Amino acid sequence: MMKNVVRYAADSPKTLPKIIADTYFDSHSEYMIRVLRESQSTKIFVFSVCGKELKNFKVVLYPSAIEYNCLNNIQPLEIDNLHPIEKINLVFN
After folding, report:
1. Structurally, how many domains does the chain consist of?
2. What is the pTM of this model?
3. pLDDT value at position 83?
4. Is 43 contained in some domain?
5. 8: Cβ contacts below 8 Å, ≥ 6 apart
């Protein structure tokens, strides 16, 4: 029998935010779009496969058909409370 033993309760597990990542490519594999979804926000990264900077384009998300104008692809497009994405179109001006 053990005497003078101190017992500590286990720390409750920390829940990490759930991140869902999706990747999209165009039919010619010139562009890649990476979508990172968390509980309250979404980041959309647009890349040229050859590494060039993209300028003045729209990102159109479907099925909602919501359009976002982007000056360049240096920073991700950040969106709050985004609806599900089934398809993404890039439209260059």
Report:
1. 1
2. 0.78
3. 77
4. yes
5. none
